[in-house]
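Hello,

Our lab assistant flagged a job as stuck in the queue for most of the afternoon. It eventually completed. Since we weren't sure the result was trustworthy after the delay, we are filing this so someone can double-check. Below is the sequence as submitted and the structure that was eventually returned. Let us know if re-running is recommended.
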Amino acid sequence: MTDAVAATDAVGGAAVPWFGQPTHRAWLDDHCKDLLAFGAQCAAPGGGAWWLDERGRPAPERGLHTWITARMVHVYSLGALLGLPGSGPVADAALAGLTGPLRDPEHGGWYPSLDAAGRPAAGKACYDHAFVVLAASTATAAGRPGAAQLLRDALAVYDTRFWDAQAQLPVDLWDTGFEQLDGYRGINAAMHSTEAMLAASDVLAHVLGDNDTAATCRARALGILDRVAAWAADNNWRVPEHFDDTWQVQLEHHADRRDDPFKPYGATVGHGLEWARLMLHGEAAALAAGDVASPTLLRGAELLFDRAVADGWDVDGNPGFVYTTDWSGTPVVRHRMHWVAAEATATAAALHQRTGRQTYADHYATWWDHVRLALIDDEHGSWHHQLDERNVPTDTVWPGKADLYHAVGATLVPRLPLAPALAVAVRHAKWL
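-- returned structure --
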């Protein structure tokens, strides 16, 4: 029981969840502003957003990454929608990277990154392209110049290159010229595709008035969610991460690279939490559009959450979520990644909003206590991106503080409805 809950119980009243308290909502608002202030130096000359170091300074030696650039377009477009001065120019500068140097003028799509000398990395990844769709959606909702055309272009590339119509799932990795498709299929790209499709659907419908394309995007997201729920149900609600080109589960993939930042071995605790929240957003999006929502989405969200918490939270004598477990739930990588805690708070808030169950509010308060005491960096700003098993900052997987995507989302999800998606909800402003 948290102190907040104990205090209200002592006087005989029902506990008021933190996200229902004006003081906590004001704290979330202030923290969101602090995060956006921390990252304000991210804009790269010529367009794009730099990887940030632990003090929020650009780290151009790490190159210019499409996923970081897209995430920063997303968060600073949200800042512009929130009316935070300075956010719009940062969003526009990052956006110029997606319409300029990070875009492949010969073969189409977006390079994964440019090195410090401006040379593009090989390949074309669904993960990156999903974030371009998300960035363009949010920037369109914020009215940023060129964003609506970028959204159309990004959806066209995604549709022709990454959407497998037969499988009704996204493929993962092409070579640079879109000639050779890799045999790997991954749930991480599918997860961010789901988020991007839900975001694009709402922006297309509510901002651009394109209900047909909106319905296609929404249907794709809901189809992915149903498949993931089925896979997780067959695996004791631990989400399989890796697949072959026929979508057969590969549970031992990367057994020799257990702390890979994007494709680690085993079950990723944070992805269980993130998928749980996306199932709630998907259900809400379906209902808002007048569609029939799958009954598996709410139950799947609850079971994914319960499994992730049982496997990942406070399992080794110290607060925090371990990064990964094996398929029996035994921790594999015990370090704590900041994004997992961010997703935990957001998912707990979403589940409470959907069900009203006090246990989710209690988890939410406990995890924000952990974030405040262990992850938020009072000296330099933002969140430590990685802690060891003793909650001491380290950087073996995530050096510096690359971007703000997860932390900013954690300040907004508890204050907004499950649908529409963040950008449209913030644009409407009535909930904040």
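-- support follow-up --
The delay was a queue issue, not a problem with the job. The result is valid. Residues 1-11 have pLDDT under 50 and may be disordered. The chain is about 50% helix and 5% strand.
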